[in-house]
Amino acid sequence: xxxxxxxxxxxxxxxxxxxxxxxxxxxxxxxxxxxxxxxxxxxxxxxxxxxxxxxxxxxxxxxxxxxxxxxxxx
Length: 74
Hints:
By secondary structure, this protein is mainly α. Helices cover 70% and strands 0% of the residues.
């Protein structure tokens, strides 16, 4: 169960959409969250990894280093 507070304008837009399509506001809120959650996870994970790289907790490798390690370069 999840309860969220939305800005009044967003609540109104969601209400109009739901009434005009015969769907519930919950349907559209759920759909929006499911579609956007992958993007949010990607963004926050990328930010975390970048933070780890900058702090020295995570090492980076050049394309050449990766190629050598995989036996793709001499």
